[in-house]
Design a protein that fits this description.
Blueprint: H1 2-36, E1 42-46, H2 52-72, H3 77-99, E2 101-105, E3 108-112, E4 118-122, E5 128-131, E6 137-141, E7 144-149, H4 156-164, E8 169-171
């Protein structure tokens, strides 16, 4: 009876230890990235690649489930559609975390979109930056939005560089 209680107690504590370990790893990576981005002349802004293995694993597992469902079972079309939705979802997350980035090297800004298209801009061409209600920052050249930094990204170096160059930053207020 005591062994059963010990095992259940261990099973209750083990997930909390696992989550604590993952949070410690995330905090170390965040500090390492902050220390590595001290140079204000050249830096990279990108999604945190911590979740890339999880997204890749999810895409692989759901792809395997889709393959198995189609070729080895008598399936209903709703099963194929639902598993396909998860495959597409994890594929999009995997591509987004691996491809999207903004590279700043002095005055040159290289933006690589989700689709893998790379465009090069100059800091002197930027006309304004607009903060949205949700905390993201949209960058404009002559009224055309060129890219957006979402609130989950660390873009303070880019913002500081805009302020130093006297590029206007606007704030969208909630309309009442």
């Amino acid at each position: 009876m005591e062994k059963i209680l010990e095992n259940t107690l261990l099973l209750m504590i083990l997930p909390w230890i696992f989550v604590w370990g993952i949070l410690c790893i995330l905090e170390k990576r965040k500090r390492k990235n902050e220390d590595g981005n001290k140079d204000e002349k050249s830096y990279v802004i990108q999604n945190d690649n911590m979740f890339f293995p999880f997204f890749s694993l999810g895409m692989f597992l759901f792809s395997f489930c889709l393959f198995y469902t189609v070729f080895f079972t008598e399936f209903d079309i709703s099963e194929v559609i639902s598993v396909s939705v998860f495959v597409i979802f994890f594929a999009i997350l995997t591509l987004d975390s691996a491809i999207w980035r903004v590279i700043v090297d002095g005055d040159i800004i290289k933006y690589r979109s989700f689709y893998g298209i790379t465009r090069t801009y100059n800091f002197n061409d930027i006309t304004k930056g607009v903060y949205t209600k949700k905390g993201s920052l949209k960058i404009y050249i002559e009224g055309k939005r060129i890219f957006t930094f979402y609130d989950n990204l660390e873009f303070s170096l880019f913002e500081n560089q805009m302020r130093k160059r006297k590029i206007p930053l606007e704030y969208k207020r909630k309309e009442k």
